[in-house]
């Protein structure tokens, strides 16, 4: 496990519930702590970015795509590859 520091953040109840809801929609791929860690990393990436185009956080795009798919979508693709 990577070394780290514990940070306590206080967010409005609505924000906490929204994040928890999103994490549960994404299933086992994300948990609350991962979501917060990725969010903080993405904020730093945007703040430290040099250039004209501000990057869209990769984890947010990935989470958005995952939200649009059902687990069965991934299983179907896996079966197709196995049959080829």
List the helices and strands and how they pair.
Layout: H1 13-25, H2 32-48, H3 58-67, H4 71-83
Compose a concise summary of this entry.
It is built from 4 helices and no strands. It is an all-alpha fold and 84 residues long. The chain has one domain.
Describe the structure.
There is one protein chain. The chain is an all-alpha fold and about 80 residues long. It has one domain (about 15-84). Helix content is about 65%, strand content about 0%. The chain has helices spanning about 15-25, 30-50, 60-65, 70-84. The longest helix has 17 residues, at about 30-50. The radius of gyration is 16 Å and the shape is extended. The termini are far apart. The relative contact order is 0.09. The mean pLDDT is about 80.
Shape: extended
Rg of Cα set: 16 Å
Low-confidence stretches: none
Query: What percentage of the residues does DSSP assign to strands (E)?
Result: under 5%
Distance between the termini: 37 Å
Mean pLDDT over the residues: 78
Structural class: mainly alpha
Helical segment tally?
4
- Count structural domains: 1
| Major β-sheet annotation | none
Query: Secondary-structure element order, as H and E?
Result: HHHH
Q: How many β-strands, per DSSP? A: 0
Helix content: 55-70%
């Amino acid at each position: 496990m990577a070394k780290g520091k514990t940070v306590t953040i206080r967010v409005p109840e609505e924000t906490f519930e929204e994040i928890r809801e999103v994490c549960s929609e994404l299933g086992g791929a994300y948990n609350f702590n991962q979501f917060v860690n990725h969010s903080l990393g993405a904020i730093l990436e945007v703040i430290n970015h040099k250039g004209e185009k501000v990057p869209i956080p990769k984890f947010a795009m990935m989470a958005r795509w995952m939200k649009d798919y059902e687990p069965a979508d991934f299983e179907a693709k896996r079966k197709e590859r196995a049959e080829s």
